[in-house]
Amino acid sequence: MGDKVQARKVAIETGLPVLPGTPVTHTVREAERYFDEIGFPMILKAVAGGGGRGIRPVQSRSEFTHLYTTAQSEVRDAFNDDGIYLERYLPRARHIEIQILCDAHGNGIHLGERNCSLQRRRQKVLEEAPSTVLSPALRAEIGSKAVKTALSIGYRGAGTMEFLLDDQGRYYFMEMNTRLQVEHPITELITGVDLVRQQLLVAAGEPLELRQDDIVIEGHALEMRICAEDAEHDFRPVTGDVEEYLPPGGPGVRVDSHLYSGYSIPPHYDSLISKLCVWAPTREMAIARAKRALDEYIIGGMTTTIPFFKVLLDNPHYLAGDTYTNFLADYADALGIG
Predict the structure, then answer these.
(1) How does pLDDT run across 60-84, given as a tens digit for each residue?
(2) Least C-beta-crowded within 10 Å: which of 19, 156, 163, 212?
(3) Which helix (H) or strand (E) holds 240?
């Protein structure tokens, strides 16, 4: 059984709500048996893989066969596993994830949430913490349930429990990532906790140094995934040489990158070339700081997503915090996405 399906099973057993879903299927005919149970729209999810691969929303029965077979082919080639399961689809869902830490002594804490709703091709583009939609009570509820679920399987280390949040504030467990994620720096920025250090201590068998009451969320943080991509052509990956490299700095600005002047970006890897993170006391101040940092960021000779983020951070719907997983598709024209 795939890890995602196993995680779903554990979530149900520990009381986490999940969207109606199916067992793993391997043929269209097998999947069709669940049409009445799930209904349309639905979403196809591959058992194997990650990074948005093998995920397809399906609006109607007429397009099901084509989307099922293309999703299956994608993950079969990449991960040698063609298992697909079906879930009910939430078109305006927010993607919320909870950062947790657990040790080998039965202790676990959460460090609040990240809003990862801004995505292209089911892959995250910009994350922020905390979200604009969770109340302190709902944050505590989801966080405590996430920790309970992780401890129930004896999980040890840093991990992320991922959820979908609907328009009515109802949340549904999706999956667990059993590692530090790309966007972990913004959790470090709002909590002051070095997640890498904590993970190493836990892996060495040490008990957690922190208790839940020690975790205090202060301010707001954004992470922009700077990619070697052309947003005007549907985020098409690009390669080439970095002719000039000058990252931004100053208070509340963090850049994680391997770039340098003269570096050649190869075609063989993910297009992510830098993570630009900012922190400020409020969301409005964090956005202003991010815009200043983007203006100062120079990656010469390359097409990157820096210009796209400058447009995004001026979008009134983004500024209002009204983001969801289909946001970039719905506002593609306004954002200059070709």
Answers:
(1) 999 999 999 999 999 888 888 999 9
(2) 212
(3) strand 240-241
Structure tokens at 251: 């208070």
Both structure tokens of 49: 């893989």
- Among residues 174, 199, 214, the one where a domain terminates is 214
- Closest-CA residue to 255 (of 271, 239, 273, 238): 273
Instruction: List C-alpha distances in Å: 188 to 111, 185, 193, 217, 258.
Output: 9, 5, 5, 10, 20
Number of domains in the chain: 3
Question: Within this chain, do residues 77 and 189 fall inside the same structural domain, yes or no?
Answer: no
Quote the CA–CA distance of 182 and 236 in Å, as a whole number.
21
- Domain range enclosing 80: 20-88
pTM: 0.88
Close Cβ partners of 36 (under 8 Å, ≥ 6 residues apart): none
Return the H-helix or E-strand segment holding 45: strand 42-46
Give kind and range of the element (H or E) at residue 293.
Answer: helix 283-296
Query: Which of these three, 214, 242, 273, is where a domain ends?
Result: 214
First vs last C-alpha separation in the chain: 39
Enzyme catalytic residues: 179
